[in-house]
Design brief:
- This is Ubiquitin-like domain-containing protein.
- The chain is of the alpha+beta class.
- It has two domains: 85 residues, Ubiquitin-like (UB roll), CATH 3.10.20.90; 85 residues, Ubiquitin-like (UB roll) (Roll).
- The chain contains three helices and nine strands; from the N terminus they run E-E-H-E-H-E-E-E-H-E-E-E.
- The strands form two sheets. A five-stranded mixed β-sheet has the order 6-5-9-7-8, with helices on one face. The chain has a four-stranded mixed β-sheet with strand order 2-1-4-3, with helices on one face.
- The longest helix has 12 residues.
- The chain starts with 12 loop residues before the first strand and ends in a 7-residue tail after the last strand.
Length: 195
């Protein structure tokens, strides 16, 4: 339904997209939510401390927004003819994550996916491993080598996933928002017990 003259039809919820890493997570938030709510949701999802997060409009990257900025106020500047229809209304932010000093520890667990029937009885179940990384700025390939050493596997025998995405070897961990205490899933393939 059209909004009366001089009024704005606002959706109860907005899709909030955060661009900055290798992938752009999308959250659904009330139009009345603040930038602090955006940071809290990101913190609760990825475990990155609030003090490391800086949010700016995609059109003005680097110009940080205050925590009390309201999402609705950030998008109504387009004029009174703007109308929103949930759930398609969205607002895109640029998210900057300040680097974390010092080493981090991540936990790598094996995927719960069952091995194929022809591997039954020969499949190795790997125990969760805590991997000590020099920093968030090592590459995923370096992480794979650390996991391989911990589990006694070659890097071609497993793949690593975080937040549903396979890690690309040449990208750094922080491009996936991987930080201290992150849990990474490993999909192990064709591993047989040796006699």
């Amino acid at each position: 339904m059209a909004a009366p003259p001089g009024r704005i039809a606002v959706a109860a919820e907005l899709q909030v997209k955060l661009v900055g890493g290798h992938f752009a997570p999308c959250f659904l938030l009330p139009a009345t939510a603040t930038i602090l709510d955006v940071k809290l949701l990101f913190h609760n999802t990825y475990g990155i401390s609030l003090s490391r997060l800086s949010v700016s409009l995609l059109t003005r990257p680097g110009v940080g927004l205050t925590d009390d900025s309201v999402l609705l106020h950030l998008i109504v500047h387009a004029g009174n003819n703007l109308r929103f229809a949930s759930p398609h209304t969205h607002i895109v932010f640029h998210l900057a994550v300040a680097p974390r000093a010092g080493p981090i520890a991540v936990t790598v667990t094996q995927s719960e996916e069952l091995p194929p029937p022809h591997m039954a009885g020969y499949f190795r179940r790997m125990r969760p491993a805590e991997i000590q990384c020099p920093s968030e700025s090592i590459t995923c390939w370096e992480l794979m080598q650390l996991v391989g050493r911990a589990w006694g596997l070659h890097t071609h025998e497993f793949r690593l996933y975080y937040a549903g995405m396979e890690l690309t070897p040449y990208l750094m961990l922080d491009r996936y928002y991987i930080t201290h205490n992150s849990v990474i899933e490993a999909q192990v393939s064709q591993i047989y017990m040796t006699g």
